[in-house]
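Our preliminary data section would be incomplete without showing what the modeling component actually yields. Below, a chain of 184 amino acids is followed by its predicted structure, encoded as tokens that our downstream tools consume directly.
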Amino acid sequence: MRTTVLTIVLLFISGDRLFGQQLIWDKTRPLTFADFRGKPHDSTFAAATFCGIETKVCKRNFWTGKITVAVEAIFYPDTSWYLTDKIHDLTLRHEQGHFDIAEWFSRKLRKIIEGEIKNVVDYNRTFQSTYDKLYRDYYLTQEKYERETGVGTELDGQLKWEIIIQKNLDSFDEYKNNGCQQKL
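Predicted structure:
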């Protein structure tokens, strides 16, 4: 009985990740149209990707106060959608770009955290303002990406941004792990 209850609790806690309510960015696992399961909100666009940056304290040493913060780029399948009659050759590449930008900024945040947030005091004092500033830059970058790619309809803009995104992912390559692999 105790094992059954523990299993159910673990499934409930991790269910979102096990049953596809969200996808964590993974270089080896690009998005597919099957990942877009949401109901379309607008008929103006071919698709919409809902993704973002999630953080959590994953390790805390009670004695030293040292903490480790996990940062992950997350894609939300149940709110992301596409319109079959409006998609074109660039649609999926463009939507992947949004998710890749989320990973780029996740890596930026991991670098900031590694350099500035060593313990609970640092976290309490600076994390929220640091996150807010980074998230504002992330949002502005996503908007610029939309403008300069014609919301995924302009090949030249899309190709330019794919290079920009890849260069930035590469420049933060040492921060590609979510942060919880480190020891306290």
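Helices lie at 2-18, 91-116, 120-148, 155-171. The beta strands are 23-24, 47-48, 51-60, 67-75, 81-82. Preliminary results of this kind motivate Aim 1 of the renewal.
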